[in-house]
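Dear colleagues,

For the upcoming journal club I promised to circulate an example of a predicted protein-ligand complex. I picked one with NDP because it came up in last month's discussion. The inputs are reproduced below in full, followed by the predicted structure.
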Amino acid sequence: MRDIALVTGASSGIGKEFVRQIAKKYKGLDEIWVIARRKDKLRELKKEIIGTRVRILPLDLMKEESFERLRKVLAKERPTVRILVNASGFGISGSFEHQTEEDAAGMIRLNCEALTRVTYLVLPYVSRGSFIYQMASSAGFAPQPDFTVYAATKAYAKSFSIALRQELSGQEVKVIAVCPGPVKTEFFDRAYEQEEMKFYKKLAMADPKRVVSKAIRDARKNKAVSVYGFTMKTTRIICKILPGKWIAKIMG
Ligand SMILES: NC(=O)C1=CN([C@@H]2O[C@H](COP(=O)(O)OP(=O)(O)OC[C@H]3O[C@@H](n4cnc5c(N)ncnc54)[C@H](OP(=O)(O)O)[C@@H]3O)[C@@H](O)[C@H]2O)C=CC1
Ligand SMILES: N[C@@H](C=O)C(=O)O
């Protein structure tokens, strides 16, 4: 039986960085399975990874047939999943009423539904002592005007992750919600296509390498939530103290 890591959103940004660091930091893996839509980007990543076999699964996680495909591959290969990273996701900023219905529903579909379904399909293959990384965000700490739907999807990811962590604690599976602030990736090409990015986001922009490295350290310490950097740790404390409607007012 093969020991694998499975990473969604592996063609870019945080997911891609997870693949690189998993290959270096987790010994004894036979394969890393990588999921995203852009096959060419996954091929480039495969070439870059030395020492661990990379298996490409070009899937669109907003399409129903992709889940059937994943279910079948898992049933056929019956791998032991040592690490699952759910990093596929996107966000669109701007007021809710000016957003397209497709974008609003798409964020829920990918950031919540796909994350949940991939976790559900993979869970039967997850072994004792394994790790599950769920990409949430600091946007999940409080309601965020102009990132209304996105922030709500990330609150879901965070809540889902913390509750699942408790359910799986008896099996020694470590589940962690990764909640960084702004991270320098392709995410912002799409998120702020329609408007100027807020200045404080530019100031707080983090390096994906550091965010992932911190997440891996935190998961090994069995933390429930990984938050990178002083600014975001402070933001989290403020969001715990103040009511959501106050935070929304300040941010709005
Ligand atoms: N960057 C940031 O500031 C932060 C990001 N996050 C979260 O981290 C996660 C990764 O984001 P980040 O790396 O920054 O963003 P990127 O845009 O760099 O990466 C997003 C990844 O999701 C994949 N993806 C997008 N749509 C689909 C789809 N329909 N099916 C399958 N895969 C898809 C993309 O691959 P492809 O296009 O090839 O399908 C890509 O690999 C997201 O959940 C994001 O919300 C959290 C906090 C901060
Ligand atoms: N945390 C970032 C996205 O998830 C942001 O605040 O833009």
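Two points we might discuss: The beta strands are 3-8, 31-36, 53-58, 80-86, 126-135, 174-178, 225-226. Residues 101-122 form the longest helix (22 residues).

See you all on Thursday,
B. R.
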